[in-house]
Amino acid sequence: MNITKEQFGKLGNNTVNAFSLENDHGVKVTFLDYGCTITKIITPNRNGEFENIVLGYDQLEGYLNNTAFFGSIVGRVAGRIGGAEFTLNGKTYSLAKNENNNHLHGGIKGFDKVIWDAKTEEKSDEVSVKFSFISPDGEEGYPGNLKMDVTYTLNNNNELKIQYEGISDETTLLNVTNHSYFNLSGDLKCDILDHELTLKSDQYLELQENLLPTGEYADVEGTPFDFRQGRSIRSGADSEHPQNKLAGGGYDHPFVLSENRNEEIVLRDSESGRQMIVETDAVGVVVYTSNQLAGDDEIYGVQPRKHLGICLETQGLPDAVHHENFPSWVLEKDKPYTSVTTFKFGIVE
Fold first, then answer.
1. Is the whole-model pTM more than 0.70?
2. Total structural domains in the chain?
3. 94 annotated ligand binder
4. For residue range 277-321, what is the model confidence (pLDDT) as tens digits?
5. Is 26 left (phi over 0), alpha (psi -120 to 50) or beta?
6. Does the annotation flag 180 for ligand binding?
7. 319 is in an annotated binding site
8. I want to staple 131 with a disulfide (CB 3.0 to 4.6 A). Which of 43, 116, 190, 333 is the partner?
């Protein structure tokens, strides 16, 4: 097991560092203290060739200008809050509007746009980096001084664990996730349309035109949203289903997980042989197939394009603060918040 640290860039007078965790099998994950951002995950294909399986940039400038949240921790609230406001304990709070009239992924300067404190730890069978940040009362409109810790741990079972911990001195909202875009082909050799996704989910949330949930749970049975036995991403991208078309040709939908911590999310690429199993205690996962991805900047030498990556954002259900029938995001004063998601990398012959 090994940990390395090196300078990645400068943000004003502050240094942005990259931390790399590597296990005894050669699996390697690199993070920035800027946004707790995962920049690379290096895993082998079935031929033993080690390649990167996430989207990102070689230079800090890419992340400073990034509007796609590549690899970042997003919060205080992941996803959209309609109208960029909410009412809590009888008081209405106005949030930063950074997507039309809505609040998206924590606002203009959310968790993804700050430098976190970092502390490393090395053990015989695992290595970790713990990132810490205090979000002050009123930041982006949210109440309470919120202390957040995000710990990335890589072990010799080829598992990457993300543990989120938070506590606030006022009742507030909290719903965080990691926003990595995965592409198991390796080094972005092709898009993710032929990746196969399996989800233990019987229901998804219908979306409105603005991509906010309608509040209705929809059954996956008989639709392109039924991933229970596995299906290709292409089947949704090519679908004429109104919800697939609304999302821009693919998925940008929250799925309600029917099981937790039991291989409830599995992504496979038959060409490379790579498999990734995701286990979480979150109530849902937002599946986003980069339907809107575009731009002139290069992603590790590849031009951004639609369907280049897939996000599996384990979290609470979007816009829950406006839907009483969704599990709540409310974090009570002085009550600890914790959530864990684990990614296990392997090979399917």
1. yes
2. 1
3. no
4. 999 999 999 999 999 999 888 999 999 999 999 999 999 999 999
5. left
6. yes
7. no
8. 116
